[in-house]
Design brief:
By secondary structure, the chain is of the alpha+beta class. It is 51% helix and 14% strand. A 3-stranded antiparallel sheet has the order 1-3-2. The longest helix has 16 residues.
């Protein structure tokens, strides 16, 4: 994983952590996870999608399909919390 991918992963895990086990769609994560402290350029949709796929494959986040719109809703799990702390 590149340093940029690590930074995106950390921002995603931090954002999902802040939801206190709530769920967020990819669009919500893209809009809200990368504040002023992230720097520029902000991640592209493709970069975010790749990071989410990796986090899901590593079992750091859990995705649940939305009942009505078919979009995935993501939340952090215990393994993701441990990784988030390691990335501090």
């Amino acid at each position: 994983m590149t340093s940029r991918e690590l930074n995106i992963t950390k921002a995603v895990l931090d954002y999902l952590h802040g939801l206190e086990y709530g769920q967020a769609t990819e669009l919500q994560i893209h809009a809200n996870a990368f504040g002023e402290t992230f720097g520029n350029p902000k991640p592209s949709a493709a970069e975010l999608e790749a990071v989410l796929k990796n986090c899901d494959a590593e079992k750091w986040i859990t995705g649940v399909p939305s009942r009505f719109k078919g979009k995935m809703k993501w939340n952090i799990n215990e393994a993701g919390e441990a990784v988030r702390l390691e990335l501090q």
